[in-house]
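stage 2 :: seqdesign
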């Protein structure tokens, strides 16, 4: 079984519209298509944190929204709240608090989290009501569909879908390290 399926590649390259942690020049870029209300994404969250810590500056992590609205009715607004926080420079703080509170993602909760992370919660409330970030979230979703995402979480390593076992941090880190080695070997 191949760890990465070459046929499933990232349709939209990582760019300025993305939220990223880690150096832009890192040899490995890990993209997650995730849903804040998805229990599997909740399980992946601490694993991704562990992977980031162990990979250090060799990894850039990007999170893209893939709310499964049919199964998770609060996921789209949670994603929009994260985008609203991002507009105020606090995407990752909101991202983290949403995963720590997956069972409380009603609009009132989202506004409370905005206040808790120190951003203008009234602005977030107005932006959620106006649907300011609906298009961004849906664009992420459409990009995921074009990339072969059909569930969450779905990971891409340097643009190729990772079909290995992300629940095993060691296997996940091994795949990322192999990708880093390939990039470093190809760099003169």
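stage 2 :: out
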């Amino acid at each position: 079984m191949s760890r990465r399926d070459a046929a499933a590649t990232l349709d939209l390259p990582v760019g300025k519209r993305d939220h990223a942690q880690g150096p832009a020049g890192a040899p490995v870029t890990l993209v997650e298509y995730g849903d804040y209300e998805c229990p599997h994404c909740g399980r992946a969250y601490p694993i991704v944190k562990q992977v980031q810590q162990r990979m250090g500056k060799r990894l850039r992590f990007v999170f893209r929204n893939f709310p499964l609205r049919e199964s998770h009715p609060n996921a789209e607004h949670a994603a929009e709240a994260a985008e609203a926080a991002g507009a105020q420079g606090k995407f990752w703080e909101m991202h983290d608090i949403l995963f720590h509170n997956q069972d409380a993602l009603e609009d009132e909760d989202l506004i409370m989290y905005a206040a808790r992370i120190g951003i203008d919660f009234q602005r977030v409330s107005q932006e959620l009501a106006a649907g300011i970030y609906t298009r961004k979230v849906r664009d992420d979703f459409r990009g995921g569909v074009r990339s072969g995402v059909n569930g969450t979480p779905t990971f891409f390593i340097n643009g190729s879908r990772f079909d290995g076992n992300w629940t095993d941090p060691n296997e996940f880190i091994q795949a990322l390290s192999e990708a880093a080695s390939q990039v470093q070997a190809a760099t003169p």
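stage 3 :: structure notes
- The first strand starts at residue 4 and ends at 9.
- The mean pLDDT is 93.
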